[in-house]
Amino acid sequence: MLRSVKGFICRPLKLDHGYALHMAAKDCFSSVVSQDVQTPAEKPRAIFYTNESDPAQHSEQHEGRHYSIPLEEVKAVFPHGLPYRFQQQIKTFQEACVMVRKPALELFTYLKNSNFAHPVVRYVIYGERGTGKTMTLCHVVHFCARQGWLVLHIPDAHLWVKNCKELMQSSYNKERLDQPLQASFWLRNFRTTNEHFLKEIKTQQKYVWGKRDSTEQGRPLGEVVEQGLTRVKNASDAVGVVLKEIKQQCCLGSFRVLVAVDGVNALWGRTTLKKEDKSPVSPEELTLVYNLRKMVMNNWLQCSILELRCLRGAMDTLSGSRAHFTVCSAPISERWCCGDNAQPDRFPLQAQLCPSAPRAAGKGGVRCTGSLCPHPRAQLHRA
């Protein structure tokens, strides 16, 4: 008898830590409450995600939702193009989800309806920091990669004009300076993204790299890339050859090219690099910048150029920066786009808005620049 009483006393009461009531009392209390108050149902995951993983099928009904990119495809399409924090999220959650934003949907419409027999059309993404410009650019890169385009992706042009670890005189042009480490790094990632194109595209002329090294005419373009990777001192010249061959053969219509540059304003700004005599290096003296500038001109066909104007890391002072990431379209003046030696000036775009575009301060988004614009919203402004 004493043992049973002792066991009853030592046995703790079964309590719910949320209400501190005995289970029987808690059941009675919950039954009364449930008659008056109904707990809201959890929001389904489908509200924030979409199962449509093909960017070409994205439309306004997918706006604001996240779509998933297979991790194998992320390694192939974005070997170096994703922001660091987004890469950390992929590593943590083991999935790559990108938000479908309205500027990306607008760009998809322009790219689908573009007439590639006309000179190249350039699009500028602009806006305040943290509004999704880089991820919008990556969304468009994924779209073009899925469509079978050759992608020339420059994740951060600012890295080419500042904090260069190695700078050497060019063997091709003594007035220019090579950046072998940056060039070899870009070539390695370019090979990963466009490996199948490197076997199909053939060189149109012979290239001599040294006394013993040369690439004969008619050889795969992949040999030029390998030359830049095995002989790092030739990497900058190899990048120039690759860009030159792509630009020449793209006009034949055998393939289409997307040139995506993040931080394009760095190509016309100041650099932090110094020569041996401590004098500053101008951007046009850098082999990589010199060749990339030619790629963003609109004097070729079968291509679309997507540029991201960003204040992050820029050395030059820009006035009238945009405050929000909205959408508008506006062409640059024709006298800035056309001509044999025309240098496109990206910064006066703010003063060249078309009548249908928002004029109030605090607007940002996508602009279309070029002498021929594929969509009806933008009208050409002649100076």
Task: Report on the architecture of this protein.
- One of its GO terms (cellular component) is small ribosomal subunit.
- InterPro entries: P-loop_NTPase, Ribosomal_mS29, Ribosomal_mS29_met.
- This is Small ribosomal subunit protein mS29.
- With 383 residues, the chain is of the alpha/beta class.
- Helix 5 (102-112) runs parallel beside helix 6 (133-146), helix 7 crosses helix 10 (235-250) and helix 9 packs antiparallel against helix 10.
- The protein has 2 domains: 2-36, no CATH class; 55-369, no CATH class.
- It has 12 helices and 11 strands.
- The radius of gyration is 28 Å and the shape is globular.
- It has a 5-stranded mixed beta sheet with strand order 4-9-10-3-11. Strands 1-2 form a two-stranded antiparallel sheet. A two-stranded antiparallel ribbon has the order 5-6.
- Strand 9, helix 11 (287-295) and strand 10 form a beta-alpha-beta unit.
Please tell me the overall pLDDT. Answer: 76
Unreliable spans: 13-26, 32-37, 311-363, 369-383
Give the number of domains: 2
Rounded to the nearest angstrom, the distance between the terminal CA atoms is: 107 Å
- Using the CA coordinates, give the radius of gyration: 28 Å
The coarse overall form would be globular
In DSSP terms (H or I, runs of 4 or more residues), the helix count works out at 12
Family: Belongs to the mitochondrion-specific ribosomal protein mS29 family.
InterPro entries: P-loop_NTPase (IPR027417), Ribosomal_mS29 (IPR019368), Ribosomal_mS29_met (IPR008092)
Main location: mitochondrion
Keywords: Mitochondrion, Ribonucleoprotein, Ribosomal protein, Transit peptide
